[in-house]
Amino acid sequence: MRIGDVADRAGVSARALRYYEEQGLLESERTPSGQRTYTEAAVERVKLIQQFFAAGLSSRIVLQLLPCVDKGESSPEIFALMATERERITAAMADLAAARDALDEMIEIAHNPTPEHCPALRETPWATYRADEAIVAG
């Protein structure tokens, strides 16, 4: 099967397939003219790779998981690897939640500015001087 056919059936770009090959996630044969050809199983493999990526895993991690898929067996090390990745994603989610909360606070301040948060609302040192000057002149 040619690269365009696999890409269409798997719902990815041909560029993605070339990247998967560069990362060692997918294999192809070459015709005498150098064109890539894939087996029928490549479509399902690409869909699986996409599921791993959708789960937030990097190509480096996916490369470690694929041999287990190919063999149909797992190991405690693989489960530990996936647990570590889950912890990484959970920490990233906490960081994003903190960033969202900080942004919510900034939005609230923008809607309801106070001198504490907005320097433009503070009385400047020279404002008092000008007010005193106006009283003396008046």
Description:
There is one protein chain. The protein has 138 residues and is mainly α. The chain folds into 2 domains: 1-71, Orthogonal Bundle (Multidrug-efflux Transporter Regulator, Chain: A, Domain 2); 74-138. 67% of the residues lie in helices and 3% in strands. It is built from 6 helices and 2 strands. It has helices at 3-10, 14-22, 41-54, 59-71, 76-111, 125-137; strands spanning 29-30, 36-37. A two-stranded antiparallel sheet has the order 1-2. A hairpin with a 5-residue loop joins strand 1 (29-30) and strand 2. The termini are far apart. The model has no long low-confidence stretch (mean pLDDT 91).
Oligomer: single chain
Give me the Rg, rounded: 29 Å
Main sheet: strands, sense, barrel: 2 strands, antiparallel
Q: Which structural class do the helices and strands define?
A: mainly alpha
CATH topology of the largest domain: Multidrug-efflux Transporter Regulator, Chain: A, Domain 2
The CATH architecture of the largest domain can be given as Orthogonal Bundle
Q: How many domain regions?
A: 2
In percent terms, what proportion of residues is strand? under 5%
Q: What pattern of helices and strands is seen along the backbone?
A: HHEEHHHH
Strand order of the largest sheet: 1-2
Helix content: 55-70%
- Shape field: elongated
Put simply, the count of helices is: 6
Name of the CATH first level of the largest domain: Mainly Alpha
Strand segment count = 2
Given as residue ranges, the uncertain stretches (5+ residues, pLDDT < 50) are none
